[in-house]
Amino acid sequence: MVKVYIDESGNMGRAGNYFVLAAVVVKGPKGEGRLKRLVRREQRLDAEGRRLEAEKWRKELKFSKMKFPQRQRLIHELAEEEGAEMFYFVAYKPRVSLLMEGKEKNLIYNYFSKLLMSKIFKRYDEDFEIIFDQRSTAVKSMNSLTDYIEISAYAEYPNLVGKKVTVNQADSRTNLLLQVADVVAGAGAQAYSLRNRHFLEILGERIRAIYEFPRRGFQGSLKFMIGKLKLIDVLRGF
């Protein structure tokens, strides 16, 4: 069983030029257990640093609210976790015609999610469970997203014939792996929006693919910075 945890950074409105979807792919209960322990340990450290009462230490980790030392520590730990792989979808919004034409954002989100999953479906020949954050403002119709992802998996990827693909939602406040996906998404957004590639460089080989969209007209591509990133093998997949 392959579990995929997906979260986002950015929005589909006018603020900012980039919208990022990040997927953390985990195979097997051992890798999942290690990541959960990593998040719980970080929650404890965060609570101790802010002198929270013991019963309040289980606070949701969010990249946007973490200070640099905490981000640095957590990203380094993720980079050493061999049981997890990261995938990115990055949209340059000023060149996305669907957004410029005012198409329904839920449908655009579904399409972006499908493009992200296309990289992942090709890599594994196993059952899938895909988990989205139920509090995401982009996902208002889970039924359409579920149908879209599941149908595309069975129709477009022969390696998944006979496999089970399910799409679910969870609350990131209690789902520790979605919190990991939030941190990974934030690291990607920082690389594109702020031109700060520090955390992506740390993640290095844990990143398996970065999908930049649209291929024509994308500005700020990391493909032209291969010499400065530890992503050479990743970027060959473009």
Observed structural traits:
238 residues; alpha/beta; Nucleotidyltransferase, domain 5; six-stranded mixed sheet; 8 helices; 19% strand; disordered C terminus
Task: Quickly describe the structure.
The protein is α/β, with parallel strands linked by helices and 238 residues long. 41% of the residues lie in helices and 19% in strands. It has eight helices and six strands, in the order E-E-H-H-E-H-H-E-H-E-H-H-E-H.
Instruction: Indicate the CATH class.
Output: Alpha Beta
- N-to-C series of helices and strands: EEHHEHHEHEHHEH
Low-confidence stretches: 226-238
Q: In what order do the strands lie side by side in the largest sheet?
A: 5-4-1-2-3-6
Q: What percentage of amino acids are in beta strands?
A: 15-25%
| Average pLDDT figure | 86
**What is the number of helical segments per DSSP (H or I, 4+ residues)?**
8
CATH level-3 fold name: Nucleotidyltransferase, domain 5
Structure description:
There is one protein chain. This protein is an alpha/beta fold and 238 residues long. It has one domain: Ribonuclease H-like superfamily/Ribonuclease H (Nucleotidyltransferase, domain 5). The chain is built from eight helices and six strands, in the order ββααβααβαβααβα. The protein has helices at 28-49, 68-79, 97-100, 105-121, 142-156, 176-193, 198-203, 232-235; strands at 2-9, 18-27, 84-92, 128-133, 165-170, 207-213. The protein has a six-stranded mixed beta sheet with strand order 5-4-1-2-3-6, sandwiched between helices. α1 (28-49) runs antiparallel to α2. The two termini are 27 Å apart. The model is unreliable at 226-238 (pLDDT under 50).
